[in-house]
Structure formats: structure tokens, C-alpha cells
Amino acid sequence: MEFAELILTPKLDGVLLYDQLSDRPIDGTLCITGHHLILSTRKEGAQELWLLHQNIDLVERKPNIVNNILEGGTIILKCKDLRIIALKIASPQEYFNISNSIEQLSNLEETRMLYPFFYIPMYNILEDGYSLYRPEQEFGKLLAN
């Protein structure tokens, strides 16, 4: 499984960020990468939010239903460092795509998916590493001198 399969919507404009520390919402662009959730206003001098997926403890979904019609919703992220971040998304399809992506990326079970880079050698490894270096032989060489 690749990260591209988990990220259904990699970029979305017009996301409102509600944070505990700010008194008014921040309107910006949300980008989802393999390891981070990035929200940027794309303005000079403004702060960006870079949130590691492993820092997300809980993902809550609060759909916005008006007259029995779904009009997006709010995704509440409760982090392991006790921050609470709310993302308000207007489109219902993007709301479900982003909430599913964040939930899957914050709960990865495969350890190899946690590494940012993968190395796949193009050749067969002939030794196992345990027979490459024998401490008894190396100490024997030191005693012989």
C-alpha cells in the first residue's frame, strides 16, 4: 500500500482553521502529505501549521446538515500534545475525503510506512550481517600482535 492510496484529496483551498490560541479563524490551503498535515495562508509573514500525522490522537467528525442536506462539516483533531484543532470544510465530498485520509494516516499499523524514505536494493544481499564480523577472530588478531 502506498501513501497515494490513502490520500484522497491532497490539496484543498478555503479551509478554515480554528485553534485554541487564536481568536478568529484562519483561512488557508490544506495540503496532506505522507507524514504531515500542512495548512498555509500563502501570505508573507504568516505562520503555517505543520502537524505530524503521528501527533494526532483522535479525529472527530461533525457534519454540517442544513434542511437534510449535507453542507460539509468540521473535523476536530485532538493531538497528543493536548492541542485541539478544528478544520471547517465547505464541500461534503472533500469533507469525507480529508477526514478519511487523516484518520487512516494517523493510525498506520505497518512500521515501514512510518519511515519517510524507502530503500529497495537492486541486488541480492549475500550476507546476513551476523557472519560478516566475528568478535572471537578479531580479538584473536589483536592478541597475536
Automatic annotation (TrEMBL):
Q: Which domain of life is it from?
A: Eukaryota
Every copy of the MTMR6-9 GRAM domain together lies at 11-106
InterPro entries the UniProt entry points to: PH-GRAM_MTMR6-9, PH-like_dom_sf
Instruction: Please name one Pfam family that this protein belongs to.
Output: PH-GRAM_MTMR6-like
Q: Which named protein is this?
A: MTMR6-9 GRAM domain-containing protein
